[in-house]
Amino acid sequence: MTNKEKYNEAFCNAFEINEDQLNGLKYQGIKLWDSVGHMTLVANLEDAYDIMLETDDIIDFSSYEKGMEILTAKYNVQF
Amino acid sequence: MITGCNRGIGKVALEHFAAAGCHLIACARKETEEFSSYIGTITEKYKVSVLPLYFDFKNEEEIKTALYDVIKQKVPIDVLVNNAGVAVGGLLQMTSLQQMKDVFQVNFFSQVLITQIISKWMMRRKKGSIINMGSIAGLDNYAGYTAYGSSKAALMQFTKTIARELSPYNIRVNAIAPSLTATGMAEQMEEKAYDEMKNRSNLNRLAKPEEIVKTMLFLASDDSSFINGQIIRVDGGM
Question: In chain A, which residues have their Cβ closer than 8 Å to the Cβ of B64?
Fold first, then answer.
C-alpha cells in the first residue's frame, strides 16, 4: 500500500467516510471528527507509519491537507 | 515504568515490583554508581530486567527523547508510576513565584508530559494502569505547603480527568495520597511541621515507604480492576 493509500485508509476507517469526502476535510467539519475521533485518527496514522506524533503536531493537525504537510515535514512520510 | 527510583518511595517500589515479577524501566535524574549497583542487585535477586532511563524533569526535550527512545524499541509498558517529585516548604509570603514554578515543573508539568507520551503508547495496546503520587498536602490544609500542596492537588485533579479520558482504552488512572513517609524528604522538614504531620495521623507515626508501595502494587494489578479515577489516602487515619 502506498503512503497516500494508508493515509486515506486511516481517515476513512476513523470517520466511516469514503475517499471522495477527504479533500478539504477539516477537524470538527464532520460529526465523527471530534476530539475523540481525532485520537482514533492519530492512532490509525501512528500504526500505519509506525510513528509517534508529538502533542503539538496532534493539536496542529487541523485538516486532511494539513496532516499530510505535518507528516512530510516532521515524520519523513512522503506522499 | 517508575519515575524517581533512585531514593525514597521510588527506590523501595523498584524492589517490590521486581519481587512481584515485573520487568522494569527505572527512571532517575542521573546515573550514579550507587543506583547502577542497586539495579544490578535487583536484577540478580529477582531475575527481572531493569532498564535505567535518565532525564532531568526540568528539561522537556530530555524527557521526550528518553521516552520516545523506549517506545521506538517497542518496549511494552503496562504500568506507569509517576512517583518523582520535589518538596519545597514555606509560607506563602516566603515562597517565590520562581520556586513555585520550579516545583510545578517537576511535580506536575513533567508528569503530564510523561503521561501524554506513555498513555498514547498504552492506548495503542488498549491497556494500562497509571498511578500518580499525590499527597495529603494536596487535599488537606497545612501552612507552608502552597507550592508542594498545590502541585500535588493539580496532579490529583489531573488523575481524575484523564481517568475519564483514558477509560475507553482500558487504561485506569489512580493516585495515592500518602501522609508523611519515612524517607529523606521527611528528614528535610522543619521539626514543628514534621511533628504536626506525624501527630495528625491516628497511628501517630510516619508511613513506611513499603506501605505506600503496597498500595501502588495493588493499583497496578488486576486486583484493583474496577478502581479508577480514585485518590487513595494512605495516612494512618486522619
Answer: 54
pLDDT digits (tens, 9 = 90+) for B155-194: 999 999 999 999 999 999 999 999 989 887 777 777 777 7
Report the residue of chain B nearest A46, measured CA to CA: B124
Q: Which of B70, B119, B120, B165 to probe by mutation at the A interface, max A CB count within 10 Å?
A: B120
This model of the complex carries an ipTM of 0.79
CA distance A13 to B151: 40
* Residues of B contacting chain A (CB within 8 angstroms): 64, 68, 71-72, 116-117, 120-121, 123-124, 168
Residue B10 CA to residue B183 CA, distance in Å, equals 10
* SS3 state at B54: strand
Contacts of B121 in chain A (CB under 8 A): 52
> What domain count does chain B have?
1
Domain that holds residue B36: 2-234
Give the sign of the dihedral formed by CA B118, CA B119, CA B121, CA B127.
Answer: positive
Alpha-carbon distance A36 to A29, whole Å? 14
Spell out the per-residue pLDDT of chain A, length 79, in tens: 999 999 999 999 999 999 999 999 999 999 999 999 999 999 999 999 999 999 999 999 999 999 999 999 999 999 9
Contact residues on chain B for A54, CB-CB shorter than 8 A:
64
Give the pLDDT confidence score for residue B18 in this predicted structure: 98
Q: Is B148 a catalytic residue?
A: yes
Confidence (pTM): 0.92
Domains and CATH numbers, chain A: 3-75 (1.10.1200.10)
Tell me whether residues A52 and B117 touch, CB distance under 8 A: yes
CA distances from B188 to A73, B12, B22, B82, B153 (A): 49, 19, 32, 22, 21
